[in-house]
Amino acid sequence: MEKKEKIFSKLNIKDYTNRLEKILEKKKFSLDTKNLLLSMLYKIENGYNDYSKTKIQVPNKNEFIQNIFNIINKKCNQIIVAEFDSQASSLLKNKNVKYIIDKEKQEIIAIANELLVFNCILNMQENEIIMPQEKQSLKVPVSNLLNIGNRINQTEVIRDFNGWSWDIVLKEIDNISVNTVFQTILYLTGYEFIQKWINNSSNLADYLDLFSSYLKENYGEKRANQFITLFCKLAIDISIYDKNEQYEFWKEKRDIFNQELEKLQDKENYISNKTKEKKEYTKQIEDIDKIINNKELLKEEYTKRNEKLPNKEKIFSISHLVLRLEKERNDFLEKIKQCNILIEPKGYVKRKHEVEAKVQFLNKLDIDKNQDIRNTIIQLCNIFLSCFEIKIAKAQTKQEVLTYIYELRYYGFLPLDKEGNTLKSIPKLQIAFQKCKKNLLEKARKLGVIDEITEDEKANFEIVSKIFDSKMIDLDHMIVEIKIIDEKLYVEYYDEKVLESRIQVQSDKTIKLKKKTKLFI
């Protein structure tokens, strides 16, 4: 079987190489660039099967590679690999950066490194996430999180997989916080949903609302509301950490809604002020009408406005002034319309409820420059694990259980910080992880997915649960053997014939010594 897979792999890489070479024939890339791109392709193809087996939530290999080809073909006019002592290398050194991307010119300049160039290529296809008008303020933070997270998720195939092992390279993960949040959403909704969200081009689709509806339907309203609030908070907190102007934006937004709510609390005064505003707008419209219908006044207005404007912004002609005045008139009419709505009892009550909801939402986000992002991520992960428990409870087939075993193992190995602390090692998450492991292994036992090593329930759990600590690519290859060494009981775990690890176990019951036993039935 493995010989067949190797043969197919060789055929695939030859086919992919031919397809890439046809694209490169049309490009004016240097020989160094072409060779690096072919090397990048080889690494992707070489590591993809392990990447797919380990992560589960990925597209098929052909779809993944074809997307890369499409970006190179349609969005990369030039890719310059900065070799040592080259002009491009000096440019990057002077700017103190590893790469430069110009999306308008469709150009990339990057250090000669497959992972870095792959990251730049993926960056070329990124666009802002489409959000409905009432959620436009979330556009920048959500776009930032989903786009960077998606890029980290895809470059993982050559960052952490080399064709024979799975090794998480912490220093190469651009943003660990973004990665953890993105992977949490990925394993909650699945690959297809998150890709549809990222690639959505319709203003009619509200994917944040669809996300919330999906969570409510599958995991309950309380968990859904908590998760969405934490997701939005993290998207904003991360964007604030990266860009200081985002903090000022959200602080101002919170202040504006708080001030409006304060005004709405005094209904009589609020309606009185809106009535005054309406009169002022009506007066402005009357003034505009006088100017438009009087040539002399039009000339005076044209001169007066142009005297105040810089050369670049001066009004070209009187006819252009008329167009501008008509636009201003329409704007005032719209403002009068809004005043009329707010003066009416139903309109007033509706607006008050809207502002109260926005203030409540912004207060929940607890926007601050010095937010503890790490702690918020832990809260998000706890909700994810409670949702994962529900997924386990609903599982009915061997394949579902096997899929969840791989997913929970991968999720546990996710790094939370630069120090390399994994999610499963965090004290505040350990109880939730243990519950998921216990429930999942119990279901695996009932459905005949995993062999029972011993009748001692406690010892059996300890032995079998080590699958979640194994970095064996294919868990189906896992073999266990119980041994007595120096009068102590040990369990050895093999990747087929290669010893991966050994643990000592304690048991009050007799455990039969077995020959090497395949753990997965």
Walk me through this protein's architecture:
The chain is an alpha+beta fold. 65% of the residues lie in helices and 7% in strands. It has 19 helices and 7 strands. The chain has helices at residues 2-25, 31-55, 61-75, 87-95, 114-123, 139-159, 176-189, 191-199, 207-219, 221-242, 244-265, 267-292, 295-308, 318-343, 345-365, 373-394, 398-413, 427-446, 457-464; strands spanning 78-82, 99-102, 107-111, 478-485, 488-495, 498-504, 517-518. Strands 6-5-4-7 form a 4-stranded antiparallel β-sheet, with no helix packed on it. Strands 1-3-2 form a 3-stranded mixed β-sheet, sandwiched between helices. A hairpin with a 2-residue loop joins strand 4 (478-485) and strand 5. Helix 5 (114-123) runs antiparallel to helix 6. The protein is globular and about 105 Å long. The two termini are 18 Å apart. Mean pLDDT is 91; it is low at 1-8.
List keywords for this structure.
521 residues, alpha+beta, 4-stranded antiparallel sheet, 3-stranded mixed sheet, 19 helices, 7 strands, globular, disordered N terminus
Task: Count every beta strand, where a strand is a DSSP E run of 2 or more residues.
Answer: 7
Give me the secondary-structure category.
alpha+beta
Continuous helix count: 19
SSE string, helix = H, strand = E? HHHEHEEHHHHHHHHHHHHHHHEEEE
Q: What is the residue-mean pLDDT, rounded to a whole number? A: 91
Using only C-alpha atoms, the radius of gyration works out to: 30 Å
CA-CA gap between termini: 18 Å
The general outline is globular
